[in-house]
Design the sequence.
């Protein structure tokens, strides 16, 4: 079992930045790839970014490439999402996820989810 707790969400103006954090506990953190997903009410949860278990590779949704950066610190059992140049359409509940496999399009297949953190972007 892996427990994930997100933090860092909040209200930001369009063009601003936020850094989300996800603290993990439980089984060996470094054995999992980690990712971020987001969801708006009434919409499906969508992939945002992922990072392999030792941070060698990162993957991003086209909508966030060049603006968001995923990173991890295995010594701290933590993964981060730096979000820059935020747009109103980035507003959502952001979920941290842990998994061991990827789809062919490099979307993480989550085995565990956090509870989510709200990001609101004002225009």
Sequence:
């Amino acid at each position: 079992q892996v427990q994930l707790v997100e933090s860092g969400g909040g209200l930001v103006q369009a063009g601003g930045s936020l850094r989300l954090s996800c603290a993990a506990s439980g089984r060996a953190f470094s054995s999992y790839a980690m990712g971020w997903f987001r969801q708006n009410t009434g919409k499906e949860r969508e992939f945002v970014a992922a990072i392999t278990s030792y941070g060698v590779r990162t993957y991003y949704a086209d909508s966030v490439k060049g603006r968001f950066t995923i990173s991890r610190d295995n010594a701290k059992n933590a993964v981060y999402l730096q979000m820059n140049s935020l747009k109103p359409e980035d507003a959502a509940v952001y979920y941290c996820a842990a998994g061991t496999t990827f789809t062919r399009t490099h979307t993480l297949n989550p085995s565990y989810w956090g509870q989510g953190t709200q990001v609101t972007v004002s225009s």
Remarks:
- The radius of gyration is 13 Å.
- The mean pLDDT is 96.
- The chain has no helices and eleven strands.
